[in-house]
Amino acid sequence: KIHKASLSKTALIIQPTLEYHQMYNDAWRMLRDYFYDPNMHGVNWPAVHDRYQYLVKRCAKREELDDVLRHVISELSALHCFVYGGEYDLPRVSASPSLKKLNDVASLGISGKSKSEGSGGYIITNVHNRDPDFG
Q1: Lowest CB count within 10 Å: 36, 62, 75, 108, which one?
Q2: Distance CA 27, CA 76 (A)
Q3: pTM strictly above 0.85
Q4: What pLDDT, in 10s, does the model give residues 32-56?
Q5: Domains observed in the chain
């Protein structure tokens, strides 16, 4: 016989900081275990883990964790390694209908827009400030 359980007096406790630390460790470990070069391009991979781990506690939202993970991955100097969303959708790119998602283009730390339709050029509208902890 199936009985229904009442959840009316149940609380769900979410601790993003703990989740972010777990996600950081899992992402670092998966790269270590599945990266095509077992020598990690000569990078001291445990040192990379330690270098960026303290930034995870400063992450207030998932996008900030993704930024830390992108920095970790960049230490490998490898192409085609990406960090993709999770619980949030990627924004659409309006400047180019051929690009479906924002992550179809490289993140350069700038914002821009097309000069004019069909010109192939871009205007830089903003250079984003960097966090001094990232160096």
Answers
A1: 36
A2: 14
A3: no
A4: 999 999 999 999 999 999 999 999 9
A5: 16-74 (3.30.750.44)
